[in-house]
Amino acid sequence: MKNISLITRRELQAYLRTMSGYIIIAVMLFIDGLLFNAFAVPGTAKKSSEVLADFFTLTSGITMVGAVFLSMRLIAEERQTGTLALLYSSPIHDLEIVLGKFLAALLFLCLFFLSTSYMPILVAVYGKVSVGHIFAGYFGLLLVGATGLAIGTFGSALTKSQVVAAVLSGVMVLALTTCWLLAKVTERPLTDVINGLAWWGHFDSFRTGLVHVKHVAYFCLVTFLALFAATRVLEARRWR
Amino acid sequence: MIKVEGLTKYYGERAAIRDLSFNIERGEVIGFLGLNGAGKSTTLKVLGCVLLPTSGSVLIDGFDVSRDPHEIRKRIGFLPDTPPLYDEMTVEGYLEFVAQLRGVTRAELAARVADAMQKTALTDRKDDVIGSLSHGYRQRVGVAQALVHNPRLLILDEPTSGLDPVQIVEMRELIQKLKGEHTVLVSSHILGEISQICDRYLVIQQGEIIARGTEAELSKLLGSGGNVELEVQGPAQRAIDVIMNVPGVTEVTVSKLDGDNAALRVVGVGELRPAVIKALVVAEIGVLRVDKGAARLENIFLKLTHGKEAAS
């Protein structure tokens, strides 16, 4: 536990003291704001809750893509600069390295969530929304972010180039996003399984303010699997 | 302290090191010599618990690198070939992070960090951001992180690489200071940089140890004790002819011509100086200077590594 918090603090410091993280968040915010203005707000006779739901849909997509970019440096950069040898030669477990880094990225991503909050506030000021809806939506975003960051961490563990890491994790996220295309040409029960893999299908209830355990479980499971895989990759790299 | 037996490490199909065996006693300073790609870094990474061996056993303080790596990691300080530094951190912040990572308690933390900075002369740069430091300072921070938790074993992979001559002298002095307190394993591909600071040397080439021993033992092993360097007056060719007639001399080369004087290098077996001087005096050639040929580690090393290449 102590080691995880140590790694998290250092990693968070790295995010806060370098430009790249801020730039990624700034771009995410910029696009989110534009899309909010272009798609969520317009429309005649739209209920406030519908605007809010659209906001969460847009933000979830941006969170997923942004998470890949935020996490691409986590392990790849350490491999590139040789600092991974420091962690490897210290008495800490590979799982602690992965978890520490993942948590730091998640905390930094919360900075993005915090910065987007002006949009639901605007909706609340000019319309009527429930606090529960906002919380459920942000909880869903946090889960989406965790999933994206975990996949990104896994991609980052595979290579020492941040660009390659981003591409690898991007492909994995893309696969989880577009698997419904594959489901179109398969038959039941395979169709159900493949449809169940798509992350946005599980986010659908959160955007409307509902929290279902099965959807929470989906995001937790993918996050766990990706972090587990990242840990195994770190362990395996000691053999070569 | 360290017991290595039959250590082998493969990268895919290629063996980086093959069947290495050696022992290191507590408090020794061991020099690890080899050209780039000889397998030094791989060996040190295995000892530093960064890589796992393909086969063979490595015991450090009685613990096996494959079974109890954590016990070993608590006892070692490792400086890889590129210092593992986080550019955005300050020197002090970085050392505190590393110390905690290696299990230094909060109570000891400040004292340990201050001690490491003092030993490596970093105290007045402690608030500098690592990214702004020069190469020499970065290397020092690298050594400081290796010794911040006061480990019994220090593994320094090429600590002198890329340093200027003054910094190399400083680094040598630092390693000498660490002697006694720690067991030190230091590697280099430039032997002059670590000659005279190590108790023993292991020369590694193509993943195998090709020679071991003290500096004196290594030079004896190669029979380079008979080299003579001298400076004579008069025509070089006549001097060479005279010296070639001395029993035991196998080769004479001109190393420098300076007006009427010539510097010669004599290679042969056994102590040649008295016979060479006598022959020159008899031949009425003025002898300006006679030196025992420097059996420098450089020469030994070149001879060893090239001999190996020729044989294989």
Short description:
With 240 residues, chain A is mainly alpha-helical.
Written description of the protein model:
- The complex is a heterodimer of chains A (240) and B (312).
- Chain A is mainly α and 240 residues long.
- Chain A has helices spanning 2-17, 19-40, 48-71, 73-81, 84-88, 94-116, 118-126, 131-158, 162-185, 190-197, 199-207, 213-236.
- Chain A has one domain.
- Chain B is elongated, with a radius of gyration of 24 Å.
- Chain B contains 10 helices and 14 strands.
- The mean pLDDT of chain B is 86.
- Chain B has 2 domains: 2-221, Rossmann fold; 224-294, Alpha-Beta Plaits, CATH 3.30.70.3100.
- Chain B has a 6-stranded mixed β-sheet with strand order 6-7-8-3-9-10, with helices on both faces.
- Chain B starts with a strand and ends with a helix.
- The A-B interface holds A 2-3, 6, 10, 13-14, 17-18, 81-92, 238-240 and B 11-12, 45, 48-52, 54, 70-71, 73-74, 76, 78, 80-89, 93, 97-98, 100-103, 145.
- Which structural class do you get from the secondary structure elements of chain A? mainly alpha
Helix segment count of chain B? 10
Radius of gyration of chain A: 19 Å
On the 0 to 100 scale, the average pLDDT of chain A is: 93
CATH topology of the largest domain in chain B: Rossmann fold
Topology:
The complex is a heterodimer of chains A (240) and B (312).
Chain A: H1 2-17, H2 19-40, H3 48-71, H4 73-81, H5 84-88, H6 94-116, H7 118-126, H8 131-158, H9 162-185, H10 190-197, H11 199-207, H12 213-236
Chain B: E1 2-11, E2 14-24, E3 29-33, H1 40-47, E4 55-60, E5 63-64, H2 69-75, E6 76-79, H3 91-101, H4 106-119, H5 135-147, E7 153-156, H6 165-178, E8 183-188, E9 200-205, E10 208-213, H7 215-221, E11 228-233, H8 236-244, E12 249-258, E13 261-268, H9 273-282, E14 287-292, H10 297-311
Parallel strand pairs in B: 3-8, 3-9, 6-7, 7-8
Antiparallel strand pairs in B: 1-2, 1-4, 4-5, 9-10, 11-13, 11-14, 12-13
